């Protein structure tokens, strides 16, 4: 009888010892509260007396912390909505600008007029630094926007699998296309007519971060199709 009693006592002591050795962690506490949502109902006085550290106000109640978090969420949502409105306004302006440009391009009657219009639109209306065109087949037209050096290697390395290249170029590529060592960031636009490559457009910005691979290409898709068609129409 005494042996059984001793075993029970030893087992109880071992259980208490094991429980004491358990280290409370944030995960354990969170798990307990999730499994026992009635805890705060049972401990109402604890909830009202609980003070949480705050780097601006010293200490605040749990309710105040919840209100602050809700205000922060609302503020973040308001900022997101404002940013979306700004982007929508910018897109609307770009759409109007591109629509006007398309009409002007369609009114061009010669290759020189077309290249003048493209150069003016990109450097003045869109405020980019430079605009260049490289064509695979040789042409008899002379224009400052046309690249006379051979850029076949650049097209093969930058546009062999993609319709666009956004980002920075190597110094040798920059000098070949823009005749200058530094151009910030660029976009190279592959030009195709009836599924045949005819060359590429190159537009540069002084802003090294402007042309980014994550840029939306919806307007560019329409732009490049029209430009390729008109270039082929006026030059070949």
Task: Give a written overview of the molecule.
The chain is α+β, with helices and mostly antiparallel strands and 236 residues long. It has three domains: 2-37; 53-107; 110-235, GAF domain (Beta-Lactamase, 2-Layer Sandwich). 57% of the residues lie in helices and 16% in strands. It has nine helices and six strands; from the N terminus they run H-H-H-H-E-E-H-H-E-H-E-H-E-E-H. The protein has a four-stranded antiparallel sheet with strand order 3-6-5-4, sandwiched between helices. It has a two-stranded antiparallel sheet with strand order 1-2. Helix 5 (62-107) packs antiparallel against helix 6 and helix 5 runs parallel beside helix 9. It is elongated, with a radius of gyration of 34 Å. The mean pLDDT is 85.
Question: In terms of topology, how is this protein built?
Answer:
Blueprint (H helix, E strand, L loop, with lengths): L1 H20 L4 H10 L3 H4 L1 H6 L1 E4 L3 E4 H46 L3 H15 L4 E6 L16 H8 L4 E4 L3 H8 L6 E9 L2 E10 L12 H18 L1
Antiparallel strand pairs: 1-2, 3-6, 4-5, 5-6
Give a brief outline of the structure:
This protein has 236 residues and is α+β, with helices and mostly antiparallel strands. It contains 9 helices and 6 strands; from the N terminus they run H-H-H-H-E-E-H-H-E-H-E-H-E-E-H. The longest helix is centred in the middle third of the chain and has 46 residues, at 62-107.
């Amino acid at each position: 009888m005494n042996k059984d009693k001793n075993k029970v006592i030893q087992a109880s002591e071992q259980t208490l010892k094991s429980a004491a050795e358990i280290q409370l962690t944030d995960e354990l506490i969170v798990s307990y509260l999730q499994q026992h949502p009635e805890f705060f109902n049972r401990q109402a006085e604890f909830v009202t007396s609980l003070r949480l550290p705050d780097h601006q106000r010293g200490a605040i109640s749990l309710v105040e912390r919840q209100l602050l978090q809700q205000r922060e969420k609302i503020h973040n949502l308001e900022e997101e909505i404002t940013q979306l409105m700004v982007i929508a306004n910018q897109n609307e302006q770009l759409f109007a600008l591109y629509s006007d440009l398309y009409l002007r391009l369609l009114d061009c009657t010669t290759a020189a007029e077309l290249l003048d219009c493209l150069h003016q639109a990109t450097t003045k209306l869109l405020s980019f630094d430079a605009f260049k065109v490289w064509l695979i087949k040789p042409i008899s037209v002379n224009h400052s926007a046309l690249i006379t050096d051979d850029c076949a290697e650049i097209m093969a390395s930058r546009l062999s699998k993609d319709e666009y290249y956004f980002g920075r170029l190597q110094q040798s590529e920059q000098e070949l296309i823009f005749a200058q060592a530094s151009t910030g960031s660029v976009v190279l636009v592959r030009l195709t007519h009836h599924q045949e490559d005819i060359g590429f457009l190159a537009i540069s910005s002084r802003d090294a971060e402007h042309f980014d691979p994550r840029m939306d290409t919806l307007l560019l898709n329409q732009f490049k199709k029209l430009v390729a068609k008109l270039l082929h129409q006026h030059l070949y």
